[in-house]
Design goal:
Elements lengths: L5 E8 L1 E3 L2 E3 L5 E8 L10 H16 L6 E7 L10 E5 L8 H13 L1 H6 L11 H6 L10 E9 L9
Helix pairs in contact: 1-2
């Protein structure tokens, strides 16, 4: 379980038929947002990074073949390139199997404090969750079963600029 001041927000959407969710194996999308602002514990605390990595590993192991997986950084608003921009599709081949991708993702997330401390990933000055979510406005969550998991500190929730 993710602890400390770190929280995982889970937003889920699915196609509904007769009131029941329908998940087609080839039509699923999982978006993982990782807050890399200087206030996010995952950027400095190895324990928090390990908790997040364990959560993601369990989650990804449960994904079906055909699920598209995006792992993206959340930080300053704007059009700059994302510091984290990983994409994979869960498959049946050895290198695409969920347990393989889950382990690779877990190792990566565990290494975030070191990657940021070494300067290989630049920590952001703020967290623009609204900007992050608006980047998916073209995503049709009614046609594609979509799950967004967002790792941020509690201060990450913000109001849009007026």
């Amino acid at each position: 379980m993710i602890s400390r001041t770190f929280s995982a927000l889970l937003f889920a959407s699915s196609v509904m038929v007769s009131g029941n969710p329908v998940y087609a194996a080839s039509d699923q999308l999982a978006i993982i947002g990782i807050d890399i602002s200087t206030s996010a514990p995952i950027t400095v605390d190895r324990g928090v990074a390990a908790d997040a990595a364990a959560y993601l590993e369990r989650y990804v192991r449960g994904l079906y073949a055909g699920t598209r997986l995006y792992v993206l950084s959340v930080g300053d608003a704007g059009i700059a390139a994302r510091a984290i921009n990983l994409k994979a599709t869960i498959g049946r081949r050895t290198q695409d199997r969920p347990e393989i991708i889950a382990r690779q993702l877990s190792n990566y997330v565990q290494s975030l404090p070191d990657l940021i401390a070494s300067g290989r990933i630049e920590a952001q000055g703020s967290t623009s969750i609204v900007d992050f979510l608006e980047g998916f406005e073209a995503q049709d969550c009614e046609a594609t079963s979509t799950r967004i998991i967002l790792f941020t500190d509690r201060g990450g929730i913000q109001l849009p600029r007026q």
